[in-house]
Amino acid sequence: MGLRGRFTLWFSLASLVAIAAAAVVTREVVATAFHRDFERTRRAAERDARRAIDGLTTAVARAVASLADGDRDVRGALFDLHTYGDVRPEVLAALQARAGGVMRGLGLDLLFVIDDRGRILAAPHSGVEGERDDTWRRLAATTHGAAFFAREPLARGGGTLRTELVVVAARTVTEGGRAVTVVGGRAVGDTLADAVRSEGRVAARMAARTGEGAPGAARSGRTLASDGVGATVAVHIADDRAPTGGGRLSIPLPGADGEPVAWLDIAVSDAELRRVQRRVTLAAVAIGAGALAVAVLLGFAVARGITRGLDDLVRGVQAAARGDLRHRVPAARADEIGAVAEAVNDMMRALEEANERLSVAQRIAAWQEIARRLAHEIKNPLTPIQMSVETLRKARARQHPAFDDLFDESTRTVLDEVKRLERIVSEFSQFARLPKPQFARVDVNDIVRAALALYRGAAPVDADLAPDLPPVCADRDQLAQVVLNLVENARDAACGGGRDGSVRVSTAPDSAGGVLLAVDDDGPGVPDDLRARLFTPYFTTKQRTGGTGLGLAIAHRIVTEHGGSISVGRSPLGGARFTVVLPPADDGNGPAAP
User: From the CB of residue 109, how many other CB atoms can be counted at a distance below 10 Å?
Assistant: First the structure.
């Protein structure tokens, strides 16, 4: 990714981070505020529920107490039990006749008047007068008139008995050793749930002992499953569409034994919080998308203004790398990039001037080096020529008897040195006037076989040529010259000092699709400190044998002009290995990789 893309990306990420942080902080602030409000609502709902429960139980307890202590019919029945040992029929009839009105007047849904033998004297809610039931007398003795919750059958429309949740209080009054128990109860119905419920915010329902809720009989007439004793429990739920989520609270409604008979379930909704959070999130996403688009456009515009100058600098440096020192970078900007552009232009001008001076100095140095090398190479054969001529002159002047033998030996020496001079001049001429390569698709193995054929009858050269080599684009004659120069160099190293050395030429496909040519020998090898200078013209390690230092330089020049590379390393045979890598052939008239 370029600088322009990275700058745009960083600009966009910076804006997104800021928006995301603002969204998170906003969500947290909103959530904290709503959480405080939620807790206040939950505590208020709990207070209202407990206040409603206390009010209901207190009202029932007071109603039963007033009936037990002050009702004349109840007191009359107690008087008869004490005086006559039983309630007189007329008193019993009056009690039963007034019981229904008294029950309704006190707002009760359940009323029992029971004597100390367990006989039910009055039961206007169910019509079970005359039956016996000691349960209520025992409960009155244990609860002492305090209200508690119970499930009792109540007569509803049509005389049907249904078991409902009621608040009950039982109180026993005594006189002269005889007792009457008054039991009164009020159906819970919607009372507790209505006291807590708040539309859309707080929902409440009654739950049976199993924790299952049910719709109330007063609203829908539906009932829950059996309570286990054959009676059907009708329990009220305040709102069938109770809010989901939020805080839930269950308040137990204890029975006479202190164990819960049912629960008042309260749910405080957090739907508003979730709606606000969703709105904040959606707003943050929308703002983030818009800000991202704006940030991308702004970032691209700013980056384009910055990178335009950098692009000019890159083109200028690339031109300098290609050697085009006349290229100039536009320096119209008045900022740091403009200053850099001006500095690059100054550097290009300085490099151009230095390059011109260096080129002149290199040409002079090259001519000096050529003259020195030529003088050195020519001087070596001139010395034996001069000595041979002087020997002949002295022998001729003295009329030496072995003049003919000296003449033959001296002239032979002169001819050898002249041939040596011709070879030196030919190599210098070949290096100086190496022809332009004539590229064609060739098989490297064919060239190697043709070159090694010249060494038949001489010291053998081993060949390890890989089959099915890809063709390369090369000048056949010049590539053959490279093979000959490398093989000759390897033979000189391997067979020096009269040894029977070993030379091996191998070919193999290159991983880049080209061809790899290697020439190995088992000679002394090339020291590490000389490898960097080995392909320099006129550098030689064969001063004693008269090397000119141009063979490897010519091979290096040919391989380079073919787009390849040549290197030297250690051979598996123990000596040196020269490795030539040639690029694959293309459809043009030159190497694939110049």
Answer: 21
Are 336-431 and 436-582 equal in CATH topology?
no
Residue 287 corresponds to which amino acid?
A: I
In this predicted structure, the answer to whether residue 228 has a pLDDT above a threshold of 80 is no
DSSP 263: E
Position of tokens 């290229």? 327
What is the maximum span of the chain, computed from C-alpha positions, in angstroms? 197
Write the pLDDT tens digit of every residue in 527-567. 887 777 777 776 666 655 555 667 788 888 889 888 999 99
Domain range summary for the chain, segments of one domain joined by +: 336-431, 436-582
Q: What is the CATH number of domain 336-431?
A: 1.10.287
What is the reported pTM?
A: 0.43
Cβ proximity of 151 and 223 under 8 Å: no
- Could you tell me where the beta strands, DSSP code E, fall in 61-177? 110-115, 120-122, 148-155, 161-175
Which CA distances in Å does 307 have to 76, 313, 469? 110, 9, 47
> Which element (helix H / strand E) includes 591?
none
**Which of 2-11, 13-22, 86-95, 170-179 has the least mean pLDDT?**
2-11
Give tens-digit pLDDT for 160-172: 778 889 999 999 9
The position carrying tokens 């061809």 is 515
| Interacting residues of 481 by C-beta distance below 8 A, sequence separation 6+ | 554, 555, 558
Q: Is the pLDDT of residue 265 over 80?
A: yes
Higher pLDDT, 440 or 159: 440
Question: Of 579, 570, 571, 568, which Cα lies nearest the Cα of 534?
Answer: 568
* From the candidate CATH numbers 3.30.70.100, 3.40.50.2000, 3.30.530.20, 3.30.565.10, the one assigned to the domain spanning 436-582: 3.30.565.10
In 3D space, the residue among 483, 489, 478 whose CA is nearest the CA of residue 540 turns out to be: 489
Q: What is the pLDDT of residue 496?
A: 67
User: What's the rounded Cα separation, in Å, for the pair 592 and 594?
Assistant: 6
Q: What is the mean pLDDT of residues 156-182?
A: 85
Amino acid sitting at position 224: L
What is the DSSP track for 531-590? Answer: HTTTTSTT--S-TTTT--S-HHHHHHHHHHHTT-EEEEEE-TTSSEEEEEEEPPP-SSSS
CB 232 within 8 A of CB 162: yes
Give the Cα separation of 557 and 496 in Å (integer).
26
- pLDDT of 231 reads 28
